[in-house]
Structures are given as structure tokens and as C-alpha cells.
Amino acid sequence: MTTRTFKQFGQGYGATPATIAVTLDSVQIFGGDIATLDQPVPDMPIVPGENLGVELYSWTKDLAFQGADVLQITVVDGTFLIAKSVANYFKYIDPALPSGPYASSGPDNFVPFYYYTADGEVVYDALSSVAIDGVAQTIARVPGEYGQWYWVLGPGQTLTATLNVIAGYESTNIYPPVV
User: Fold this and answer.
1) DSSP for residue 63
2) So where are the chain's domains?
3) Residues 104-125: pLDDT tens digits?
4) What does pTM read for this prediction?
């Protein structure tokens, strides 16, 4: 049985270490200090193409899992910016060949693992129903920018959200092609 690995990127900011606690469906998957930069949080929106953050933690699921998990991130100390969420074994469907053959991102290529369509654009953002300290949050997307939304949390704040997952796909046809 193939296991799929998910990774969360982000960054702590400030002069003191940032400490977070993360649960997925009420099971703690990470707790501790995260990489911290002694500088202010970048202004939002983030410059397109700017890759903020480092890998903070990972978790695994069965390759066939699809659906939703309840995510909770609590910032114990410091300031935290949650950035991209990625996984391996993403299923690529060629629009010219919607019935297949399909390709997989394979075991070593980590890419966004959930998408939906909004206003005719594909949005790669696994988080929905986001609330910070119980207050529902809205996203003011900029046309043409459809990646994962970045959220900033201060000391003592808690983000809750639905983490959406599309099932993984294992294949010898790897995309992008390995050269």
C-alpha cells in the first residue's frame, strides 16, 4: 500500500522563536518551534512568485484518501505565516486526453494537492472555511493569482479550517517528465 506524504511550508517572524501546535482531526501532528526570521512579516499581498517559508512539518495518509480533515493551528509564541501545502502523487490529467492515460507527480515531486474552479480560473488552495479565533475569514483574490492564500497568525491566535484533499495517483508515467 502506497503512503502519500503531505508537507506544510511557512515561516515564523520576530525576535523570539515562534512555537505552534497543529492538529489534524483532533490528533496532534506537530508541536514545537519553527524556523523564525528576525524581521517583520512581509506586506500582503505577497509578490507573485515569491516563495515564502520553509518546510515546517509533514504528515502521511493512504494514497486513496480523499475528502476533508479539520485543521487547527495554534500559535503559542511569536508570529506565524502559513504558506503552501503540498503532497506527492498528484494526478495529472491532460486536457487533450481527459480519459487518460494519466500521469503522477510521483514520490519525489511535491505539488498542491487540491484545486477547484472559480470564475473560470483553477485555484490551488486546499484550505476552506478558514476562521481565526472563531471569526470567519474571507479571501480577496487578485485576478490571475490563484495559489494558496497565506494567513498570518500572532501570539495566542488559532486558525481552524477544512483541509481538502484529492486522492493521489500512482503511475510509472511521471509528470513533469524526468530528464
Assistant:
1) T
2) 3-165
3) 999 999 999 999 998 888 899 9
4) 0.92
The beta-strand segments (E) located in 15-170 are: 18-24, 27-34, 36-37, 54-62, 67-77, 79-87, 91-92, 103-104, 116-118, 121-123, 127-132, 135-136, 151-153, 158-165
132 contacts: CB under 8 Å, gap ≥ 6: 151, 153, 157, 158, 159
In this prediction, residues 97-103 reach a mean pLDDT of 90
Provide the pLDDT for residue 144.
75
Dist. CA 148–CA 132, nearest whole Å? 17
Please report which confidence band the pLDDT of residue 49 belongs to, taking 50, 70 and 90 as the band edges. low
- The closest alpha carbon to 157, from 96, 72, 95, 85, belongs to 72
Task: Give CA–CA dist 86/54, Å, rounded.
Answer: 12
